[in-house]
Amino acid sequence: MGVASERELPLKEGYEGWDDYAPFYDWENARTLGRRDVPFWRNLALQAGGPVLELGCGTGRIAIPLGRAGVPLVGVDRSGAMLARASQRIRRHRLSATVRLIRCDIRSLPFTGRPFSLVVAPYGVLQSLLRERDLAATLESVAGVLRPGATFGLELVADLPSWKEYKKRVSLSGWRGARGGPHVTLIETVRQDPARHLTIFDQQFIERRGSRRKTHRFALTFRTLSVPQMTRRLEKAGFEITALLGDYQGGVWDRRADVWMILARLPRA
User: What pTM, to 2 d.p., does this model score?
Assistant: First the structure.
């Protein structure tokens, strides 16, 4: 009997790999996205005038600056390892009264009523939902916790459907943490699965401390959704699209934009 091809294997869950990624998440993002998107989310949250829910809050990259600006925020994530790092930072910044963390599945948000004036899903969070039914359940769940007339803001990874494949490329290299921290090298492979509309990032983080070396291997999988595809799903879930943005300053989106953002509103009853 022949070995089953990769595309015949059962589809993994999109949350797999994120616990392994937690020690390297802030290190990598500081060298790629950085904090370029933080002012946008902070301004949106301050304008909302009420509690904010962040989907996939991770290590608190967005939640901490919003909390420091006085925004009451609940951050949810499925990864316990990510939330542990966020919790440490919240205590360090003395934000426990402003920022609350909950470990949960975004397909079924554990809130009653409609407590939130804004829900945000930064930088590709919804693309970790690899099945159509999972995305539909999440959008329904978000609609159930938003106040009527409130905004749902989300960002997609730009041009993910056209991401070029490559194999074992050294993507980043440098020191992690304060003096005495390890030297880290990221070796990355990108694979496309067009049949299932997926992009897979095979990650290999190599830590070196003197003569000692440790390798961490895992994969992160994203669904390749375009802005028009996501807007249709939002409209099907009952949202009204209010803006398609192509940068963090409010510029209009087009297919060549470096940033893909959607703002949608839950209609008033």
Answer: 0.93
